[in-house]
Amino acid sequence: MEPQGVDEQAEELVRSMAGELTGPRAGECLACYVDRMLAEFGCDGKLRFALRYRDLRAPRASALTRRLGQIGGFCDCEIYLNGWILRTELALVQGDEPVQNLPRPPCQHVRAGSTKPCTNWARQPRYGVW
Ligand SMILES: [Zn+2]
Ligand SMILES: [Zn+2]
Description:
Elements: H1 6-18, H2 30-41, H3 48-57, H4 64-70, H5 78-83, E1 84-86, H6 87-90, E2 121-123
Antiparallel strand pairs: 1-2
Helix pairs in contact: 2-3
The structure holds zinc ion (2 copies).
């Protein structure tokens, strides 16, 4: 079997992005959705999934890019490096030891049209400290 080329991988990603599997689940918040997509597809240096969520769920949230920038989220993964942290992870953070890859609790859901994180998430206390 031929190894899959980069082009085919990219095509497959585009195909799966177009599918319903990669859309937000019913009631799922922005933070849980982008976190779930990053685990699967990784960050491409842009707000790829955050803006996808907005387009699908909160098209009137025109200030989303600016608001995420205010918490240091200039691409999908930075939202979590600088902006939001799981409360379950926050409880375990000690000093500078990063806690990662904990199992994700199910999304606590937000109202339709909201771009706020659900109650699973808290603000990163270390933002700006780097
Ligand atoms: Zn990133
Ligand atoms: Zn959530």
